[in-house]
Model the fold of this input.
Amino acid sequence: MSHLKSEWAPMINGNWALLSLMARKRDARRPEARRPRSHEIEGLEGNEYPLLPLTDAVVFPNMVTPLFLGRDRSVRAVEAAESLHMPLLVVAQRNPDVQDPDLSDLYTIGTAVEVGRILRMPDGSTTVLVQGIERVRIVELIDTDPYLRVRGIPLFEDERHDMASEALMRAVLALFEKVVSLNSNLPEDAYVAAMNEKEPGSLADLLAHVLDLDLEQRQELLETLDVNVRLQRLSIMLGQELDVLELEDRIQTKVQQELDKSQREYYLREQMRAIQNELGEEDETQRDVRQLREKLAASGMPEAVRAKAEEEIKKLAAMPPMSPETTIIRNYLDVLLGLPWQTATEDNLDIRRAKEILDRNHFGLPKAKERILEHIAVRKLAREKMKSPILCFVGPPGTGKTSLGKSIAEALGRKFVRVSLGGVRDEAEIRGHRRTYVGALPGRIIQTMQNAGSINPLFMLDEIDKLGMDFRGDPAAALLEVLDPEQNHTFSDHYLEVPYDLSKVMFITTANILDPIPPALRDRMEVIEFPGYVDEEKLAIAHQFLIPRQLEAHGLQPDQVQFTTAALRAIIREYTYEAGVRNLERAIANICRKVARRLAEGKTAPRRITPGMLVKLLGPPQYTEWLVNETDEVGVANGLAWTEAGGDVMQVEVSLMDGKGNLTLTGQMGEVMQESAQAALTYARAHAKQLGLENVDFDKIDLHVHVPEGAIPKDGPSAGVTIASALVSALTDRPVRHEVAMTGEITLRGRVLPIGGLKEKLMAAHRNRIKMAMIPRRNQKDLVDVPRDIQRELKIVLVDRMDEILSAVLLPGTPKPPRPKPTRSRRKRVSAPPAEVQPTAQPTAQPAMTG
Ligand code: ADP
Done:
């Protein structure tokens, strides 16, 4: 229960003064209204009344009430009362849904009223204003047609003016005052009128009239003739109303407080703005906008971008400072204005200086250095017209790709930035998310350009061979746009929305192996190989670069620690197994750290690092010096593989046993490698006579080909000749020469086809103390890249046909000794490495070996 019924409200609210005035007038006009105390006048037979049943109202004596007349019979009853100048009796229906009520549907006590104005509405309905006179009890029904007519007896109230009634009046008034103060639908006038009411009965009726009570409660109050009891009941109802109102008020206040907090801040800010405006000062937003405009003017953006930025600044200026949209626009503008648009570094095209810088930081790497110097020379002649080449440095980890990139940047006087593409699967990482996404950001290219601060940095894209692809789009396609000189002057980033010019950037990409790079991307780039270093090169790099660098990094003077060449050799051979020098550098750093610590603690530290100290400094050796094969064995041949970490020697083992002509292949061979094994077998069968296998019944034996390091996936066709050699060795029972390694694809007819990664493979053979390597003749052209040292120390034999290999590697058969079990005999890791020295020979990610 909360408010007055709506259709009553305007009438009552607006007419309080009038209402009480009318009530007073009635009292003055009808002094006989003050009746004796008995409820019914004794012996009175009562009066006859036209009766108006009310569906949802109770009329109290003295109160003016508008009544809506819906039924014809009701209209007729009202008209009769008016024309006969007699009071009308209004009584509430017990059930408002009954259309034609008879006496049993009505309460027995109602109110005699004086009919005031009858208002006929344009829509045909009728409303009548009535004013209550007195309570009346219905005693009998006289007639039902044309309207209800009843006999009723006026009731008189038990009205006392004693202390109890006075106290009750005050209590009710006090409660009512509170209700009025909390209920916005009750005007102040209501309380004034109540305060001026001197009669306890009339006060109770007035309050019952204005309060929003149920029909039953109203009827109960109407029927309570003892005025004190009526006041008591009313005070209970007022108390309940007050409880509800107070609860409502508390909730309202809480909600309001929450609202107020944010609104307060808003208002204060607005006020501050207004005050600052009055004082001629600028507020925070204005200052922001001014600063943004200044930056914009200085940014040198192309016109289209400038217009876009200006548009966003305008939006920002018009926005309330606290809105979330503001932050989004602010961030966008920060990105736009934070990007270099015109700022460029001037290229230093002094070739001699460039050469000096490249040589100062790097040993060897003649091809890469040469290419850069050529580029500088051409730039010098062609000036701006020359576009930067897109270089791709390919090689195992730790071969100096990144650090050479840095040196090139230094030589050219360009800023150096890099981004790793390893594991990037989502195009949005390259190109950004549209600004409509929550937390959207520009892609890595634009973010990195922001860091570069100039439009022409040297931009290194690392691990381009590790680029992924999935349902979120193809990042390689986005990269194509970055690397295409025809397109990259208008590179589009989803977040940025405006084109960005990447054409002045010099891109260098890096990769461990070329194969996984999508051909379209590979075509755009000029590949420069970083094949890895032989021991002598590593030694030179350690002496000239790694040791001085690490000494300086650890605050040591050159005379405080010296590494003997023997110690370095031991580190290279026994503690690292890699194509690059990353672990070597780590081991050197490790030793420097230990020495520095001892010196810092005031203890004595070794000045010369000798091989004997290594166990103490680095722990037990990780790789013992083993030749690949200790002995010549039957069914075991050395192949050469190409891995991400460079090259490696890979043994192939073949066993045969009685069976049904099955071929089992194990050691995680890829499809291509399995097919090579099939081809090798077919070759052996097809050439059985030539190979001395005419007595072998292939249908009665089972063959098992295994490639050790069984957990590492391997693939590629280049193991073909090795598998064939091991097979023929097993079938003929002739041992294979252990100091020979081979590589090449085999055809069914026994031709040997060329392979990839020759340089890496030969370096691995050399590292593993192989004496002779047999390679496809068609790979002869690649020998120019193979370091001289290796060509000197490793006998390289070029072959066209499989039988050339077989006749070179198979030793004459021995009269059946017990066949030795093939042993794994390449350099073996003999113990778990200490945490500081992690060999990269078998990278943890288990790369595929490709032959
Ligand atoms: P990558 O990028 O090829 O994995 P890095 O450029 O990170 O290899 O090289 C690893 C470390 O080896 C660096 O500290 C680098 O300076 C050093 N390094 C590699 N090659 C050479 C070299 N030819 N001369 C001098 N230092 C080298």
Q: What stands out?
A: Confidence is low (pLDDT under 50) at residues 1-38, 817-851. Residues 82 and 115 are 6 Å apart (CA to CA). Residues 362-365, 397-403, 541, 545, 580-582, 585 surround adenosine-5'-diphosphate (CB under 6 Å). The first helix runs from residue 9 to 14.
